[in-house]
Amino acid sequence: MTTADENELLTRVENGAPMGRMLRQLYWMPAVLSSRLEADGAPVRVRLFGENFVAFRATDGRIGFLDEACPHRGVSLALGRNEDCAIRCIFHGWKISVTGDVLEVPNEASNPDCFRDTVKVRHFPTVEGAGIVWVWLGEEGEAPPPPNFEWMNLPATQAYACGIELNANWLQGVEATIDSSHIALLHQSWLESSPTDMAATRVNSAVRYQFENTDYGIRAAALREAPDGSCVARVTEFVMPYYGLIPPIGIGAAQDRTVIIAVPIDDTHLIQWYIYYNTERPVDSMKRTQRANTWPMAGGMPGGPEQNWGQNRTLMQHGNHTGFHEIVIEDFVTQVSMGPIVDRTKEYLCSADQAIIRVRRQLLDAVRRYTGGVLPASATPQGRDHAAIRATGGRMESAEQDWRALPR
């Protein structure tokens, strides 16, 4: 059982909370779609860990990521003029570079050059990959190496990112990605038209788990026996602290792969990022269009609890299990319906929740080590080497076979 103190430690990320400090200091995070930042275009507000930032692409293509408030009087730099490789506050014309240097203070009459050198503006390093601008929000020392997952350097045609803001704590998003037991139940209507590799998932909702601990996180194998005696394995990769690599349906280069990343906006909101990628060919364009039209980045969930988030009871009467038209919406609704922060002291966990239990333990161990001055394994060079990590899955002749032998 998760205690009340553990739940607080796991979920709180604002105002210097230990988990928030660890995530900011040790890990990079996705912040904004690259496509939203145009050279000399409109700056974009970004909220992470309960703080407000502004991102912009300068004239020369570099990314600026600064505190949103102008250091002069606190006016939002999202209103600013993005020009000449800097952002200029519209209030008094202060001009700030992508590296946080104050270049001009036109309303200062007494030695403006000397004065501007005294102004400190927080700015944060960024990299781009998979159509996303990633940021490091740490405040001590140098930034760690950026993520080196296989999708980071793929061309735009082979990696597509999208996301949605949800009214739920970040951990609810993380736990959803590692929970394979809900697939046969929550998503049963979608599975009816899925490939035959998922037959065992449709007919056997009782999942057995096996695990392998790694420096970077956990490999969680969800095993389901089929009527013919074979066994379908779905091996999800949890990569600290918020990545879920979901196994494709089927095996081989033809299959697009999915990554889900749950990033804290604040204590009670998260961005659920999805990256669809393929190392061998362009990502399925139909999937790309469908995802973009179904849940755009700024769209959020339709309706609210009073409307059951757009649930359609007519669909349910005609055979749809949940009353939602899209598989990812089913995931979003269940997370949000739990409330802003789940009270985990009231849960009755079962054997199918072993993956969730292990993720919580790993996060708790990491944050306790961090606050004790010890680097968690996932922040060591070995734990940061993500290049070869792939979720996998497939059908084995029997449950006695070793799922670790499945090709990634």
Structure description:
The protein is 22% helix and 25% strand. The protein has 408 residues and is an alpha+beta fold. The two termini are 34 Å apart. The mean pLDDT is 88. The protein is globular, with a radius of gyration of 23 Å. The strands form four sheets. Strands 11, 12, 13, 14, 15, 16, 17 and 18 form an eight-stranded antiparallel beta sheet that branches. The protein has helices at 4-11, 18-26, 112-116, 170-178, 183-186, 188-191, 199-203, 285-294, 313-317, 327-337, 354-371, and strands at residues 29-33, 44-48, 51-57, 63-67, 81-83, 86-88, 95-97, 102-104, 126-129, 132-135, 159-166, 208-213, 217-225, 231-239, 243-246, 257-266, 269-277, 392-396. Pfam families: LigXa_C, Rieske. This is Rieske 2Fe-2S domain-containing protein. GO terms for molecular function: 2 iron, 2 sulfur cluster binding; metal ion binding; oxidoreductase activity. It comes from Cupriavidus pauculus.
